Amino acid sequence: MKKALIAGLVFFGSCKSTESINRFAKSASTGTAEISRSTLDFSQICRLYDPTVLKKMTDTTLYAKSVHPASHCPEFKMADSLTKLINQTLVNYFSMLGSVSDKKLLAYDAKDMVNALADIQPQVYPSLSLTDEKISAVKGLLNTILNEPLKWYRNKKLISVMRQNDSVLDRVVTAYSFILDSALSGEINQAKENYRSFVYATLYEWSATPVEKAMVNQLYNQFMLSMNDEQVKIHKAILMLKIIQKDHHLLAYGKPPDGFAYTESEISQDIVLINKIISELIQLIK
């Protein structure tokens, strides 16, 4: 009796754990994909705010109009390739966790078999007397027998996979966060300086009237606001990556002695936060 109780608790806990992994993985996959969709890449920043191109905007000579500016943007393609590879790797990893942890994936559907038995039994095996209630009971029992052990095994395997990959994921997320926070954010800061030096200062100096100066200031403010929005998106992306990083570790190893109850509560709260950040990123690109 005691062993049966313990086994039941194991099944119950593993089932809930699998569902927590599934919910986390879906949010993490959607979140990392949204980071790639929402944030500017290095080439985009370069194409828009390359110093050579910006200078051409304020150069009115005939020579400038006839010469295509030499852009350095191809140099940033390698950085974009690396960033996209990191992002897609994370998306694929979390998608894999989501697929394998889906409780419907290995669910055994006994409907056709039981219905077929119900159709033939009145003629072939009338003594069985399979009423609708009995058919439902058989189906439910088959689902329990065939699905629950697979679900338990699946949870054990999932935890093993997550533990094997936790330190690797930690390094990948840390590298991705560094690219966003230092490299990409640094390019945005440089874009602000370039616009201020090569466009705004020149246009403001050329402005002959208060109206012209006001228009130049308006354009400048719009540009700075757009760049600030990009930095806000980066900060939100980094926050989301930190949450994902923490939750993956929590699901892989738990938090003794608090156990699964703490893990489930923490994951549930963080999923809400991840989805909120995703919504905020979507709003910022509208």
Task: Note the main attributes of this structure.
mainly alpha, 286 residues, disordered N terminus, elongated
Could you characterize the architecture of this molecule?
The protein has nine helices and no strands. The protein has one domain. The protein is elongated, with a radius of gyration of 29 Å. α1 (2-38) packs antiparallel against α5 (77-100), α7 (132-206) runs antiparallel to α8 (210-253) and α8 packs antiparallel against α9. The protein is mostly helical and 286 residues long.
Question: Helices and strands in order, then pairings?
Answer:
Blueprint: H1 2-38, H2 42-49, H3 51-57, H4 62-66, H5 77-100, H6 111-124, H7 132-206, H8 210-253, H9 259-284
Helix pairs in contact: 1-5, 1-7, 1-8, 1-9, 2-7, 3-7, 5-7, 6-7, 7-8, 8-9
Low-confidence stretches: 1-15, 62-70
The coarse silhouette is elongated
Number of domains: 1
What's the helix-strand series? HHHHHHHHH
Q: How confident is the prediction overall: mean pLDDT?
A: 76
Task: Indicate the radius of gyration in whole angstroms.
Answer: 29 Å
Query: Biggest β-sheet, characterized?
Result: none
Structural class: mainly alpha
Question: What percentage of amino acids are in beta strands?
Answer: under 5%
Give the beta-strand count. 0
Given the structure, what is the number of helices? 9
Distance between the termini: 60 Å
Task: Provide the helix percentage.
Answer: over 70%
What's this model, at a glance?
With 286 residues, this protein is an all-alpha fold.
